[in-house]
Every structure is written in C-alpha cells, then in structure tokens.
Amino acid sequence: xxxxxxxxxxxxxxxxxxxxxxxxxxxxxxxxxxxxxxxxxxxxxxxxxxxxxxxxxxxxxxxxxxxxxxxxxxxxxxxxxxxxxxxxxxxxxxxxxxxxxxxxxxxxxxxxxxxxxxxxxxxxxxxxxxxxxxxxxxxxxxxxxxxxxxxxxxxxxxxxxxxxxxxxxxxxxxxxxxxxxxxxxxxxxxxxxxxxxxxxxxxxxxxxxxxxxxxxxxxxxxxxxxxxxxxxxxxxxxxxxxxxxxxxxxxxxxxxxxxxxxxxxxxxxxxxxxxxxxxxxxxxxxxxxxxxxxxxxxxxxxxxxxxxxxxxxxxxxxxxxxxxxxxxxxxxxxxxxxxxxxxxxxxxxxxxxxxxxxxxxxxxxxxxxxxxxxxxxxxxxxxxxxxxxxxxxxxxxxxxxxxxxxxxxxxxxxxxxxxxxxxxxxxxxxxxxxxxxxxxxxxxxxxxxxxxxxxxxxxxxxxxxxxxxxxxxxxxxxxxxxxxxxxxxxxxxxxxxxxxxxxxxxxxxxxxxxxxxxxxxxxxxxxxxxxxxxxxxxxxxxxxxxxxxxxxxxxxxxx
Length: 559
Known about the structure:
single chain; 559 residues; alpha/beta; 8-stranded mixed β-sheet; 5-stranded parallel β-sheet; 22 strands
C-alpha cells in the first residue's frame, strides 16, 4: 500500500525515526526544532524535510503546532506515515484547506517506508514518489461513500451556516481517510485547541468565530494558557496574555463552557459507560475510554471544534467494538509493595511497550488504584503511545474479553520501573520548584498534599505550585484546604496546567523542578528547558520542605 492522503508537491532531505513524535511538547512551534529530550530526533530541525514517522503520538495539540509551522514556512515538506494517523493529518488539512499552505501526507507500507528511510533525498510529484534511482507509484487520496443522514446533507448544503458546512466537510474528509462508512452522533465535546500553543490557534479560532460558528452539543474547554482572571496581576506580558485570553474567549463566544480544565472527567456528570463523546486532550481521551468506558477517538485540535459544531464524528476506531480490542498483553511483575509513583511510571512504560496498539495490563488484579492513580497512569501512557486507551485486568470496565486472539505478550518488572525512575531523575537533587497538577489536581489530591505538608511551610527558595480546575479551586476554598495549603506556602493556580504554563507564573529563577506526574516529567525538559526530578506525592512534599529530592529510587524499587 502506497497512498496519497493529502496531495501536494514536495521535495527535500529524508529525515526518519522509527519512534512516533508528539509535535506538542516535542517540537518548537516557532522553529520546527525537536525539543523532546527523550526522542531520537532531539535537536533536529523538521522544516523542509520529507519526515518519516510510523505515526504521531502524545498530545492532540500537535495539529495546531503543525499549522503554525505551515503558516511560518517551517513545516516538513511532506509527512510519510507507516500507520494510520489523524493529528498531524488534520493540521495539514487545515493548513491547505483554510490557509492555502498545503503539506503533503503519504502512507506507505512497511517495506516501502523502510526503503525510503534509507534514502538521503526524496520528491513527491503528483502520483509518484522518487528517491535516487528508486520510484514508487502512489494511489490517489482515499474516498468513501458515506451513509449520510438528511441532516448531514442539509448541513453540507449550508443550511446550518458556513462554519458548520466547513466543519462537516472536513469531518467527511477525515472519515474517508479512516475508512469510516458513516458518522455517529456525539453527546458532548471537549475542546483542546484553546491552549495558546502558537498564533495559529488564535488565527483558526477567530476565523471560525467570525464565520458564525456555534456549538451544537454541550462543550467543555481544556486548560488554557493563562489564569483568565488574574494573568495581568501575575505579571504575564500582554504580548502573550492578550492573545491567550482572546483565544479562550473566542471558544466561549462559540458557545463552549469556560471550564478550563485538562481533567474534564472530574467535572460533575462525567461520561457514562458506552456513551459516544467527542473529546480532545490526550489524557482525557485515554481516561474516558479506559476508566469510564465512554467512547471517543483521540481527536486532533480543530477536529474537536468541528465535532462540537456538528455533533457528528466519523464512526471509526474506538467508537467501534472491534477498535477497542487489546493487541498486546503486558504482564506486570508487581513489586511486593509500592507507593503512588508506581502508576505514572507504569503508564509511561506501558506506552513505550505498546506505542501503536491498545494493551491489556495484567498482574494488577489485587491492587486497588484510586481514580487519581488511574488518572496518572493514563496521562503518562499518552506521552509514549499513540493508542487512545488501555485495559487493566480486574480494574477497568471492559478488560474482560478485551484481548485479541492474535495479541502478542511481554512483561514489565521492577527493573524496568527502576530504570524509568532513573531516567526521570537525572537532574541534581537540589530542587527549587515543585510542579503539581499535570493533569489538574483533584479535590482528594489537594487534600493529600495538605496532609503531606502537615502544617509545615515550604523551604524559602523552593516554590510549590499546584494547578487545578476552577471547580476544584471552589471546593478547596469552601472546605478550608486552600487556606491550609497557602499557609504552607503552596500556590494554587486555576485555568492553566503545566503543559501550557509560562513565565513569570512559572518561576523564572527555577532551574530544577520536581513533579509527581509522569506526563510532565516526560514533557518538562522540552517545554520548560529545566531539569527534572520525579517522585511520589509524599516525596514532593518532603522536597518542598527540605529543597532536596531523594537521590535513590524508593525502597520498593531497590533489589
């Protein structure tokens, strides 16, 4: 199989990696340089290349990063995938369709992909790919005859306005690429594109709002890039704060609820088992599918708005029973004892072990993870895997019978967990920032942090910041937890999260941070240009008091 997904002429040097890449948190949106410190392409520049990846992974915001690269002339000339891919494909679709900056997207079979990866230079011209003395004919872009409802046809004819018409046109294009035969209704949506990853996010949102876009289903919003009510008082420069606030306001103008949280499953009335929803934000998608048993593809930024505007999504992937099967069994040789650091470490390792497929984790049947433990696991899994969900035997609602008959198997043990801990703890032990709330802290996590601080005040010179949704901030203010945390020197900040925080809210003087989040431990070196330490929540609290992180793995990981 060698197929054009999005047609455009392209030529340039071949840059290949056998490991997927998250453009958000992994690529500098201004320059196209790879900033993911854990990725083989770290330090390379993508602009003008024929970029070969098996697929993308990680954040849904990658589509916005690609759009910004396309608008600034720093995008790859072509993206060549070996597997199905939606996030960057959607960004390329928007770049070409709405802004006249096309990026070629191809999908090749494994043998052709491997052959092209060995070449130094390649060119895409019409339906032909050439590299040196090797050439390959390409099939035209996918087309599919969708079973459309009368409402779909009316929307495509413009009956609901230009914005909804455009949205459904793009949804149908993506459906064809996914091999869907029809669309499905969704009951709710969650917008991830409200993070000010780059000026392109605001350009897109403003254009859609000016077209009269209005959501058709209840729609929540992800964490944004500023504390909406307080960024001026926090000293955020207007050159960043103004467009970040305008981006959030544009989505509110289109009818989205200003929930401003990356953990929408913590809001009242979370999705139910089997409910069809249209969510972006990688951790939220994985949690909704895995823990709640709701159904949503990991929709790219921009697609999230299109689904909210139409209430429709391609019926493909994990919306379907067969798309939710586990194609790899991962047995966990669980240490005899553990603390809450187990779950983010395990999620990160499970994603590395299953980068391109849904896994079933076994060996955890006698544990009792909290919803916050599972939140941490799902978030970390999303940094290293492209899969939109996982199953955990005896714990998640669809694990029984989820294993595909042809699934393969591998194991994760204490040595793997200890090595992951070491990778997350290569920085000096002296820390000057404790970064908590990636994803947003829940009410129980805030109370657990308060209990761990035990009335003690943080060390002068070691700042402690926890990010939360406004609904959690209201709850901890009402029950006194906020006052107690503030007395310990903890700063609690709503609306933003660590994947969208910027200076000066992020302390400019901080050089080494510590976090209990596997997700942020992975992304922080690239996003913040700081060194990172990782540990359980209790370890983070002790480091807040002493300024020193543990220099050895926890006892449960030692031989």
